[in-house]
Write a structure and sequence with these properties.
The protein is α/β, with parallel strands linked by helices and 682 residues long. Among the domains are: 178 residues, Isoleucyl-tRNA Synthetase, Domain 1; 94 residues, Nucleic acid-binding proteins (OB fold (Dihydrolipoamide Acetyltransferase, E2P)), CATH 2.40.50.140. Helix content is 43%, strand content 17%. It has a 6-stranded parallel β-sheet, with helices on both faces. A 5-stranded antiparallel β-sheet has the order 18-17-16-19-22, with no helix packed on it. A 4-stranded antiparallel β-sheet has the order 5-4-6-8, with helices on one face. About 1% of the residues have low confidence. Bound molecules: 5'-O-[(L-methionyl)-sulphamoyl]adenosine. The site of 5'-O-[(L-methionyl)-sulphamoyl]adenosine has 20 residues, from helix 1, helix 8 and strand 11. 5'-O-[(L-methionyl)-sulphamoyl]adenosine binds next to helix 1, helix 8 and strand 11.
C-alpha cells in the first residue's frame, strides 16, 4: 500500500500579551481550512499552532497585573476564554500545540543556540541601536520610518548592551537567491518588499540575546543573557516535532514544513531570519512561507492598545462558528488586506448561507419529502452520458450534446457539467492558497442549482405525477447530487454544518469523500432524504447590529477591573495635574439618540462660549433624550476630541456610577439651573 503524502503546516505561534481577536482567528481558521482540505485529499497532516510566551512585553504586563510572567501567560493560554478555549470553539483541528515555556522547547533552544555559537555563526559584541518594545524588534537607524518602528509606527528606544549576534549577513546571498529564484515566498508581491527593503540595503548581523530583562530562555553558557524572542519563537516549528528533544519524534517524518502561514508583518522573520537560522543549523528549508493580509477595522490594523479589536467569541456565539469561519474565508482575498465589519458579516451570512446554500438544501429536501415521501424512486439517478459529461469536466462538445434538447432537460447538462468540473477548479484554487476563489467556484454551482429549480419548476411537474414523476425524480436527484458535491468541498470551511447537510440529503460516508466529489452519480438514487433544521437562519441586520454592540460593550465592561464588586479608591493625582482638568457647567440645548447605537446620546450644549459644543455620552440606557433638554449638567471640556460612530465628541459629561444587582447604573450630575453655562468648577 502506498504511503500517504505528508503535509506539515503551521500558524504563527500567538503572543499571549492580550486576549486574541478576530485577526488572530482569521489566520488560524485559514490554516485549519487548509489542514482539513489536505486531510480530505488523503494526506497525513501535521498541523501545529501554539503560543510564543517570552519577551519584555509579557514581563512588563505581568508586573502591571501583579503576577509572575508564567501565571500571566497561563491565564491567557489555558484560562477561561483563553487561546486554547478559542481554538476549541472555532473547531480548530491542530494536531499539536506548543508553548514556548514548555520544558522540552526551552532545553532545545539552548542546544540550538549553542550549535549556532559552536559553528561560529553566533558571536559576542555590543548592541547599539533602536528597539521597539511592543514588537520585540531591533532596528537600525536606516530602517526606521520617520524615526519610529517601521512595523507598528510607535516610538523606539535607544539600546546599548553586551549581546550575542547572529551572522545573518553571511547568508544574505543565499537568502536573496531563495527569494528571487524560487517560489519559497508567496504571494510574489512580498518578495520585492523583502529584497528591496531588507536585503538590498545590506543585511546586518542580528542581535540575538538580551541582558536588560529576564523573561526569556537563558543562554546556558552565559548566564545573564536571554535568547532573543524571535530565535526562540521561530524554532518552535522544529522543536515541536522533536528537534533537539525527546518529547516528540516526528522531525524526520514531517520536516521540512510544507508551508508556514503567517501575517504580512512577520514575513520578514520567516523569509529572512528563519531560513538563515536553518542554513546555520544545516537543516532543510521549509517549502513555502505564505504571507496573508490583515483584517482591518475602519481601515486600520486591529490592536488592543488602539481599543479597536473585535472579539471572535461574541461573533461565534451570536452567528455560529461555521458561519464565522465561512465569512472569514469567503470575503477577504487571502493575500490582501480586507476591511472587517459586522454589516459585511451579516450580509454574507444572509446572501451566501441563508439565501443560496440554505435555500437550496431546504427547498430540495422539502420537495423530496413532499413529492416522494423522503426517498426518490430507484432508477432516477445519473444516466451514463451524464456521468461521462461530469467526468470530462465540461468539455464544450459534451455540454452541447446534453444540452441539445429543447426541453428543460437541456439545463441538466449545464448543471452537471459545472458540478463535474468543480472539484478540479477548487483544487487549483486551494493549492494556490486562494480559498476565497475556491468558495466562489462552489457558490457558482450552488447558484446554478437554485436557478435549475426555477427552470424546472418542480411544483408544476408535481401537478401530474403520472406523466412527470420520472422527470421530477431526476430533477430532484440532480439537485441532491450537486448539493452533495458542494457539501464535500465546503467541509473544510464548515465541518459541523456539512455533517448536518449530509444527513439531510442522505449522503453516507462513502459519498462524502474527495474521490466521490469527482464522480457524478455517487449518491444512491434512493437515499433517505430528510428536511432537518434550517442550517443557516437569516439574520435581522438591525437587530443583530444592536445586539452585537450591546454584547461588545458588556464584554468591555467585564474586562474592566472589578471595581463594581469592591469599590477602591483611585490612584492619587497631584494637585497641579488635577487643576488642569477643565470642568464647566453646560446647558442641554438638544439631545438625540445616535443612529444604530443603543447606548449613545448626542448632546448639543451651551458651554458659555457662544459656540455649541457636541458631546456624545453612553447613557441612552438610563435617560430618554427629550427629558434631558434644558437640564444643567457638568462636563470636562479639555479632553482631546474623540470619534464615536462617525461623530466627534468634544469632552465628557460627568456622571455618578454605581452598581445595582450586578448592573452598572449611571446618573448624570445635574446642578442648580441658576448657575450660568460656562461657569468653571473649582
Ligand atoms: N508571536 C509572533 C509569531 C511568532 S511565529 C514564530 C506573533 N504573534 S501575534 O500574536 O502578534 O500574531 C500572530 C499572527 O496573527 C500574525 O501572523 C499576525 O499577522 C496575525 N494577526 C494579528 N492581527 C491580525 C489582523 N488584524 N489580521 C490578520 N492577521 C493578524 O506575531
Amino acid at each position: 500500500m502506498s504511503e500517504k503524502p505528508k503535509f506539515y503546516l503551521t500558524t504563527p505561534i500567538y503572543y499571549p500579551s492580550d486576549k486574541l481577536h478576530i485577526g488572530h482567528a482569521y489566520c488560524t481558521v485559514a490554516t485549519d481550512t487548509i489542514a482539513r482540505y489536505k486531510r480530505l485529499l488523503g494526506c497525513d497532516v501535521m498541523f501545529l499552532t501554539g503560543t510564543d510566551e517570552h519577551g519584555q512585553k509579557i514581563e512588563d504586563k505581568a508586573k502591571e497585573a501583579g503576577v509572575t510572567p508564567k501565571e500571566f501567560v497561563d491565564n491567557i493560554v489555558e484560562g477561561p476564554r483563553g487561546v486554547k478555549d478559542l481554538w476549541k470553539l472555532m473547531n480548530i483541528s491542530n494536531d499539536r500545540f506548543i508553548r514556548t515555556t514548555d520544558d522540552y522547547h526551552i532545553s532545545a533552544i539552548q542546544k540550538i543556540f549553542k550549535q549556532m555559537y559552536d559553528k561560529g555563526d553566533i558571536y559576542k559584541g555590543v548592541y547599539k541601536g533602536k528597539y521597539c518594545k511592543p514588537c520585540e524588534s531591533f532596528w537600525t537607524e536606516s530602517q526606521l520610518k520617520d524615526g519610529c518602528c517601521p512595523d507598528c509606527g510607535r516610538p523606539v528606544q535607544d539600546a546599548e548592551e553586551e549581546a550575542y549576534f547572529f551572522r545573518l549577513s553571511k547568508y544574505a546571498g543565499r537568502i536573496q537567491d531563495l527569494l528571487e529564484n524560487t517560489d519559497f515566498l508567496e504571494p510574489r508581491s512580498r518578495v520585492n518588499e523583502m529584497v528591496n527593503n531588507f536585503i538590498k540595503p545590506g543585511l546586518e548581523d542580528l542581535c540575538v540575546s538580551r541582558t536588560s530583562f529576564t523573561w526569556g530562555i537563558p543562554v546556558d553558557f552565559d548566564p545573564g543573557h536571554v535568547v532573543y524572542v524571535w530565535i526562540d519563537a521561530l524554532s518552535n516549528y522544529i522543536t515541536a516535532l522533536g528537534y533537539d528533544n525527546d518529547r516528540y519524534h516526528d522531525f524526520e517524518k514531517y520536516w521540512p514544513a510544507d508551508v508556514h502561514i503567517v501575517g504580512k508583518e512577520i514575513v520578514r522573520f520567516h523569509s529572512i531570519i528563519w531560513p538563515a537560522m536553518l542554513m546555520s543549523l544545516d537543516l532543510p528549508l521549509p517549502k513555502k512561507v505564505y504571507g496573508h493580509g490583515w483584517l482591518l477595522l475602519d481601515g486600520g490594523k486591529m490592536s488592543k492598545s488602539k481599543g479597536n479589536v473585535v472579539d471572535p467569541y461574541i461573533l461565534a456565539e451570536k452567528f455560529g462558528v461555521d458561519a464565522l469561519r465561512f465569512f472569514l474565508m469567503r470575503t477577504f482575498p487571502f493575500g490582501s488586506d480586507g476591511n472587517f465589519s459586522n454589516e459585511l458579516l451579516i450580509q454574507t451570512i444572509n446572501t451566501d448561507l441563508a439565501n443560496d446554500l440554505g435555500n437550496l438544501v431546504s427547498r430540495t429536501t422539502a420537495m423530496v419529502g413532499k413529492y416522494f415521501g423522503g426517498a426518490l424512486p430507484a432508477g432516477c439517478g445519473a444516466a451514463e452520458d451524464e456521468k461521462k459529461l461530469a467526468a470530462s469536466c465540461a468539455a464544450p462538445e459534451c455540454v452541447a450534446v446534453i444540452s441539445a434538447s429543447d426541453g428543460p432537460e437541456k439545463f441538466d447538462g449545464e448543471l452537471i457539467a459545472l458540478a463535474g468540473a468543480l472539484r478540479n477548479k477548487y483544487q487549483e484554487d486551494m493549492d494556490a492558497f486562494a480559498p476565497h476563489k475556491a468558495l466562489e467556484e462552489v457558490f457558482a454551482v450552488i447558484q446554478r442549482a437554485n436557478k435549475y429549480i426555477d427552470e424546472n419548476a418542480p411544483w408544476a411537474l408535481a401537478k401530474d405525477m403520472q406523466a412527470n414523476g420520472p422527470r421530477l425524480a431526476h430533477v430532484m436527484y440532480n439537485l441532491l447530487e450537486a448539493t452533495r458535491i458542494c457539501g464535500i468541498l465546503l467541509t473544510p470551511f464548515m465541518p459541523e454544518s456539512m455533517d448536518k447537510l449530509f444527513v439531510q440529503i442522505g449522503a453516507g460516508a462513502d459519498c462524502r469523500t474527495w474521490e466521490s466529489a469527482g464522480v457524478w452519480g455517487s449518491l444512491s438514487d434512493t437515499a433517505a432524504v430528510t428536511k432537518g433544521e434550517n442550517l443557516f437562519p437569516r439574520v435581522d441586520l438591525d437587530k443583530a447590529l444592536a445586539q452585537l454592540e450591546a454584547a461588545e460593550e458588556a464584554a468591555r465592561k467585564a474586562a474592566l477591573p472589578a471595581v463594581e464588586v469592591e469599590p477602591q479608591l483611585e490612584e492619587t493625582v497631584d494637585f497641579d495635574t488635577f487643576c488642569k482638568s477643565d470642568f464647566r457647567v453646560v446647558k442641554v440645548k438638544d439631545c438625540v439618540p445616535v443612529k444604530k447605537s443603543n447606548k449613545l446620546l448626542r448632546f448639543t450644549l451651551d458651554d458659555g462660549t457662544g459656540t455649541d459644543r457636541q458631546i456624545l455620552s453612553g447613557i441612552a440606557m438610563y435617560y430618554k433624550p427629550e427629558e434631558l433638554i434644558g437640564k444643567t449638567l457638568v462636563a470636562i471640556v479639555n479632553l482631546p476630541p474623540r470619534k464615536m460612530m462617525g461623530l466627534e465628541s468634544n469632552g465628557m459629561l460627568i456622571s455618578a456610577v454605581h452598581t445595582e444587582h450586578g448592573e452598572e447604573k449611571l446618573h448624570l450630575i445635574m446642578v442648580d439651573d441658576a448657575i450660568p453655562a460656562g461657569a468653571k468648577l473649582c
